[in-house]
Design brief:
Number of strands of chain A: 0
Distance between the termini of chain A: 61 Å
Number of domains of chain A: 1
Shape of chain A: globular
Largest sheet of chain A: none
Number of strands of chain B: 0
Strand content of chain A: under 5%
Structural class of chain A: mainly alpha
Helix content of chain A: over 70%
Radius of gyration of chain B: 22 Å
CATH architecture of chain A: Up-down Bundle
Strand content of chain B: under 5%
Order of helices and strands of chain B: HHHH
Number of helices of chain B: 4
Largest interface: A-B, 51 and 53 residues
Radius of gyration of chain A: 23 Å
Shape of chain B: elongated
Number of domains of chain B: 1
CATH topology of chain A: Sodium/glucose cotransporter
Distance between the termini of chain B: 11 Å
CATH class of chain A: Mainly Alpha
Helix content of chain B: over 70%
Oligomer: heterodimer
């Protein structure tokens, strides 16, 4: 079972953050800076010019706090669906997953299915209630009938933890990728990403961020589809012929489309599935997107469009990866020293880029590189906005000012918070340049699944949840998710250099989530305070509102 | 004011009907998705060889890949079914409930 070598530990980081861990070189610092790629830079400048124009337009329309956080709720279901897909598919999706299919065939496809399967469940069980109860952030929902100060502080803290871990992973990935694709210096790349992100978010708020996501999703779909069609045409659009030839040359042979090592261990498999599924349902920047539409109807439509786009694109990636086995994998041009089967130029991540160059020349390569940069920028902006709203809406307006902050001061705080987060991101990006940060994404998903998700779902579904239970669940989930990741191989062995991992699995979800649910149950049930009783009583009204949408944010403001 | 509205709505038998039908529909679909997905994951863990077989003699398509493509499509179709029913039947019912309650209060 040589394929058991598949690094379980970095499995999450792999696809999400760009396979830096899998490919190795970028984090080892062995990555060569490439020649400056002018096609890519020109196309990227076009993208920046267009999005700046939109930001300028959006800034004139961003006046109230609602405009800033949710674009005034005026995004349509289709637009929001594109934006969610844009938020969800990072540069790593394009690069890491294509590389995974190229290297491991079936396992790459399986991974994509795991990434997709959470969406229908979010639609069936959460979308409507999220929209009906929330206003700007998901803490609006968890704190709906519980203690505003304490529960919001807890939710805002775990949001910020998720945002920060995710930002580090994205920033370091961005720096490496831009160095590789554009031939720019790492530090310049980091500053570029950080500053552009600050401009989008501070001036244009949610409206600009949403349009950056939409344009980027459109570019990603166009570029990916074009590359796939050009590549697939070389096999006469015949899956049979493609597979016959690919299995002939691939080192796995006929095993290419058989399950390999990825999910061979059922415990890890289920933990990974849970982490991806419920982590997605606990990511603050994804949850925030549910509040940008007018009502539950549009919220449902957005998930439907988003999941359709994601599912389509994953299948495009499958074909791209398989075509690349022949087109890239058999061409000496793409290997260092021209030895087919050796080390790919630029590292294992570059399969999609090489494929674009092979089938569409420098123009298509430039376009795809610009897409990758745009993608990073869009994801980072979404994260910054989510982090900034946790600070300004939850901590400043609700906890410190107890709901008495004026709109303008709240917006001012969120702009300051965005700029602060931008500098934090730049600083951390530079600090972690040479570190293996793949575990950061695992951590972000782990905390989202174990700290955010349980409290969120219980607050919507379980009448008996009290402030005490929510606090124990939130902090308990946070601590146990972090602890499990620290004790796992990714940190304990790879970062701290200990011999063996104390926690044998890569994904904390299967273990940390039950901890959170259990704590919520025990400390809610044993809570016999007067406040707890009134919180339980308040569930009735919340329940009717969550089901009917009566009294929800947009209905009130329109 | 809105508390009174919620009370009226809760008392409406149509509300109970809405909650029950929509809840049952949403949970059934969720269980189908979760069951098939985790079932597939367990197949991968325990019966990988079955998934590696070709779907037919001389075919290059394996059972595993065909099943995954099927799941991608099925999950999306189930989502579409839910959205269609929720956005028409359930939303109309919701609207009636809200209207009735506000009429009663006036």
């Amino acid at each position: 079972m040589m394929r058991r070598l598949t690094p379980y530990v970095s499995v999450l980081g792999f696809a999400l953050y760009g396979a830096m861990a899998y490919a190795g070189p970028p984090v080892d610092g062995a990555l060569e800076k490439q020649a400056t790629n002018w096609h890519a830079i020109v196309m990227f400048c076009l993208f920046v010019a267009m999005t700046m124009g939109i930001t300028y337009w959006a800034s004139s329309r961003t006046k109230s706090a609602a405009d800033f956080y949710t674009a005034g709720g005026g995004i349509t279901g289709f637009q929001n669906g594109m934006a969610i897909a844009g938020d969800y598919m990072s540069a790593a999706t394009l690069l890491g997953l294509t590389a995974m299919v190229y290297g491991q065939g079936f396992d790459g496809y399986l991974y994509m299915l795991s990434f997709f399967a959470g969406w229908p469940v979010i639609l069936f069980l959460m979308a409507e209630r999220l929209r009906n109860l929330g206003r700007f952030t998901f803490s609006d929902i968890t704190a709906f009938r519980l203690d505003q100060g304490k529960v919001r502080t807890m939710a805002a803290l775990s949001s910020l933890v998720v945002v920060c871990f995710y930002l580090i992973a994205q920033m370091v990935g961005a720096g490496q990728l831009i160095k590789l694709l554009f031939g720019l210096d790492y530090t310049i790349a980091i500053f570029g990403v950080g500053i552009l992100m600050m401009v989008y978010v501070t001036f244009g708020g949610m409206a600009a961020t949403t349009w950056v996501q939409i344009i980027k999703a459109g570019m990603l779909l166009t570029g990916g589809t074009l590359t796939m069609l050009l590549a697939f045409s070389q096999f006469g659009f015949s899956f049979h012929e493609l597979m016959e030839r690919a299995t002939n040359v691939h080192k796995l042979g006929l095993k290419l489309m058989t399950p390999g090592g990825l999910l061979a261990d059922p415990v890890n498999a289920i933990s990974l599935g849970l982490g991806l599924m419920f982590g997605t349902a606990g990511l603050p920047h994804i949850l925030m997107r549910f509040f940008t539409v007018n009502n539950a109807k549009e919220a449902r439509k957005s998930v439907l469009y988003a999941s359709g786009i994601v599912a389509y694109f994953f299948n495009v990636i499958l074909l791209m990866g398989l075509c690349a086995i022949l087109i890239v994998g058999q061409s000496p041009d793409f290997f260092e020293g021209g030895t087919v089967g050796g080390k790919l130029v630029g590292g294992g991540n570059m399969v999609a880029m090489h494929l674009a160059k092979a089938v569409g020349g420098n123009m298509l390569l430039g376009f795809m590189a610009a897409v990758a940069f745009a993608t990073i920028l869009a994801v980072v902006s979404g994260l910054a906005l989510a982090g900034a709203s946790a600070i300004s809406h939850d901590l400043y307006a609700r906890v410190i000012k107890k709901g008495k902050a004026s709109d303008s001061s709240e917006i001012r705080v969120s702009k300051i918070a965005t700029i602060a987060l931008g500098f934090v991101a730049i600083f951390l990006g530079i600090l972690f340049e040479k570190q293996n940060v793949a575990f950061m994404v695992g951590l972000a998903f782990g905390v989202a699944a174990a700290a955010n998700f349980p409290v969120l779902i219980l607050s919507m579904y379980w009448k008996g949840l009290t402030t005490r239970g929510a606090l124990f669940a939130g902090y308990g989930g946070l601590v146990s998710a972090v602890l499990f990741v620290v004790l796992s191989k990714a940190v304990w062995v790879d970062v701290f250099g200990f011999k063996a991992a104390i926690f044998p699995y890569s994904q904390p979800a299967l273990f940390a989530m039950p901890v959170a649910f259990l704590l919520a149950f025990i400390f809610s049930k044993s809570d016999s305070s007067v406040r707890a009783r009134s919180e339980i009583e308040a569930f009735e009204d919340q329940y009717v509102r969550s089901q009917t949408g009566f009294g929800s944010a947009s209905a009130a403001s329109h | 004011m809105s508390s009174l509205m919620y009370e009226k709505m809760r008392a409406n038998p149509k509300f109970q009907q809405l909650v029950k039908t929509r809840g049952r529909y949403a949970w059934t679909l969720s269980i189908v998705v979760l069951g098939l997905f985790y079932g597939f994951v367990l197949m991968v863990a325990f019966q990988p060889a079955v998934l590696g077989r070709a779907v037919g003699e001389g075919s290059m398509l394996t059972v595993g890949v065909a099943a995954e493509l099927f799941l991608f499509i099925l999950f999306w179709v189930l989502s579409a079914l839910y959205v269609r029913r929720a956005n028409t039947e359930f939303d109309e019912l919701t609207e009636e409930i809200v209207k009735q309650a506000s009429r009663e209060i006036k």
